Every structure is written in structure tokens, then in C-alpha cells.
């Protein structure tokens, strides 16, 4: 009888194994994550728009030779201070000196022809007074004298022009200032008008900075600007002198020039911090969040809001207005008093249970005094 029951038992065991293999596994519960939260509140902005600017001279002159030639000498270096009338560079003047000599020879020839025509006219005038020649002949001598005089005037004008060309081989500073750029070196052949030296003229200073197109409309001519040099405690008050009418083709920003008081002269090329008063928003009450609390949801931004009743999180879309340092200004989507997850936003899912993370207070180490070791050396007798 036991032999007959054995196959039935084996069949029952096999069916049980097959049924247990086809059943679905029990899903594991999602872990409860600890998150950092912050309570949404209203606070003042730290500052408005702050930009980096550069101190420049109001007028910078790019000086070049008025004639072309080879540079044989340059007397100034970058950063050197020059005075008006000081020689900056020199071209090879040999060809121009030869042209001056040729012009002088032409003046001498024209002067000789004019003197000869004047003598003929004088002689023919005396003959006309004695009625030895006709009036037409005297008029021809008068015309010849006028033509010779015109040729002399032309030769003298050409001589003066050639003299000027020879003088143009010397580049002279027309203003006092500081050399801010040297664009040509000795031995280089330059064309007329090619910049050789750039001079920042002495006088008023400007601060130049760039603003994006969404803020350029707020900056007006004559509006105040606070300029602070690096390491300085007191800002310098300046006024907007010029706003670019078009954007830079590369950076797509608009240049702004600020005039500084003459008594507060800053070093040329110095980098300064610029805060336009038109963009100052310090003290304005807004809702701010750290950038670590943001989560990109498609084309919009969102944050995780904590439901304190069920201790779950839900995704809340928000609208961002601008940035304030490392924080963002929220324009809509949140109300004061809400609790928002501030860290670990990319590992959460809607409806997930969480716990509020609490930082552990550091335990101060306890220094246990070691018992003093007793000397085992015998006392000296």
C-alpha cells in the first residue's frame, strides 16, 4: 500500500513546486529617504545688479604717420608717460629729402623763367611806349610773364608740400598722456595712417562695463552708479555718460560708460565693481530659494513640497524671476510657510515617504587623564 501512495505524494510535491514558481514575488517597500527641508519665507534681496568694469581714459588717441615708410627708430615704450611735442617714432626720411631737393630745383627753374619773362615784358613795354611794336606783341609778353609767375607759384607750393611730407616722417605726440599700446616695431614698413602708438590722454577717467539686453533699458543717461575699487572700503559715485545704441556682435551685451570725478582718479586699466543705482534692489522683500532646491521638469522649474501630515513629497512648479547671488528669486508658485526640500531633489518621486534629516551634534571628545606613573627607581640615599 505504501508503494501505491508514493507516486501520488511525489505528484503533489511537484505541483506545489510548480505553483510556487509561477506566483509573483512580493514587491519590496520603497525606502524612506531622509531629506533636508527649509521653510519658505520672505526676506530682503542682498543687492541689485553688480558688474565688473574697467577704468579707461575718456580720450585715447591712436597716432600714426601721415606718410608711409620704414620705421627706423621708436623712442617710447608701453606705459611710458609722454608730453605734447615729444618725438615718438621716426621713419626713414631719405626718399622724402630727395623729393624736397627736387622741389627746390623746380622752384629755382621756375624763378629763372619768371625773371626772364619779366625782363622781356619790361623791354617790350619800353618799345611799345616808343611805338616801335604793336599792342598785341606787348600783350603776348604780358601773358608769358603771367604764365611764368603761375609756374613759379606752383613750384613753390609743391616745394612746401614736399617739405611737409619730409616733416611727417617724425611722429610727435600732440597731447600729454600715457602710452597704452605699441602697435608697430622698428624695421616694420607701415602705410600712411597705420596706428603705431596709442596714448591715453591726461584728464577725466571713465569706467566701462557691459550689461545684458534685459537690463539696458533700466539704465538712463545721468543716473548714478557706485564704483568700488578692489580693496577699497568707500565707493566712488559716478554718473552714466553714455549707453551703447546697439549690442556687441559677439557678446550681445551693451556697453555703458560712467564718468568719474576728477579728484577720484583711478589707475588706468584697473578692474572695479560697478553697481548701477537703477538696478539696486537691496531691501526688496522676495521669496528666495537655493539653487540646490530646484528640479528641472521639462521646460519649467519645480520644487518638492513636503506634506507634513502624510510625510510625503509632491512636485510643485514655480516661476523664477532672477538670481540674487547663489539664490533664485521665486515669482510665483510658493507661499510663505511651505516646506521645500533643499537637497537630494533628483532622487525623489511623487508621493514618496520621507523623513526630515537632522544633523547629529558632534560629541566632544573626553580626555581621560592618565594616572601618573610611579617611579620605581630607588630613592637616592
What's a quick, concise take on this entry?
The chain is an alpha+beta fold and 381 residues long.
Report on this structure.
The structure is a single chain. With 381 residues, the protein is α+β, with helices and mostly antiparallel strands. Among the domains are: 82 residues, conserved putative lor/sdh protein from methanococcus maripaludis s2 fold; 84 residues, Elongation Factor Tu (Ef-tu), domain 3 (Beta Barrel), CATH 2.40.30; 74 residues, Helix Hairpins, CATH 1.10.287. 24% of the residues lie in helices and 34% in strands. The protein has 3 helices and 23 strands. It has a 6-stranded antiparallel β-sheet with strand order 2-17-21-20-19-18, with no helix packed on it. The chain has a 6-stranded antiparallel barrel with strand order 3-12-15-14-13-16. Helix 2 runs antiparallel to helix 3. It is rod-shaped and about 155 Å long. It starts with a helix and ends in a 25-residue tail after the last strand. The C terminus is likely disordered.
